[in-house]
Amino acid sequence: MRVPGHLRQFELWINGELAVPENCRYITPISPSHESPVTRVPEGGFADVNKAVAVAKSVFESVKWSAGQCMHAAALSRHLYGQSCNTLGSGTMAMTLRAI
What we know:
Blueprint: E1 12-14, E2 17-19, E3 26-27, E4 41-42, H1 46-62, H2 67-81, E5 84-87, E6 93-96
Antiparallel strand pairs: 1-2, 3-4, 5-6
């Protein structure tokens, strides 16, 4: 399949910056309505996910959470990911990932 040169290419967004995937691979999704390429998106791998999660954890742990924010985040987290939340005396929130 030929990929038109005018396709917009996206990058990963990690730590507030655009990032090229570690494997340098991209996916070109095909539109089901007109069966032609629509864009190019990064094929992020384990290294990219690990980097993004590490950054997210460090930012998350550095924020002081109010009781209301913690309860909201905990409820959302349980709903979306099945994770549990423990509130700490300092007003921060620690998440325990459930083994998958």
